[in-house]
Amino acid sequence: MKLGQVESIDVPPARIRAALLDDRGVFVRVDELESAEQLTQRHLPDVPECDLPPNEYIWIDGAFWPLEWAQRIGADHAAT
After folding, report:
1. Taking the CA atoms of the chain, what radius of gyration do you get in angstroms?
2. Are 20 and 45 in contact (CB under 8 A)?
3. Could you tell me if 45 and 68 are in contact, meaning their C-beta atoms sit under 8 angstroms apart?
4. How far apart (Å, rounded) are the C-alpha atoms in residues 16 and 11?
5. At 13, is the pLDDT very low, low, confident or very high (cuts 50, 70, 90)?
6. pLDDT on residue 79
7. Cα separation of 80 and 69, whole Å?
């Protein structure tokens, strides 16, 4: 390479990370997708990282809540 030349570097395309919810809205995992076209309605692209245990938290009104709590509140609400 000569002085002043720039070597081209192949940079892989940025991958998209998004939390995945099941059909009830319960956190399943964080997916790493190759493109935005792979996002589904069950993905939360605004949540690229999540260290919560899978199948224990539900997405309600923009936040994760313990599933057990949500189930208990739902049962209490149904009983009234």
Report:
1. 20
2. no
3. no
4. 15
5. confident
6. 47
7. 17
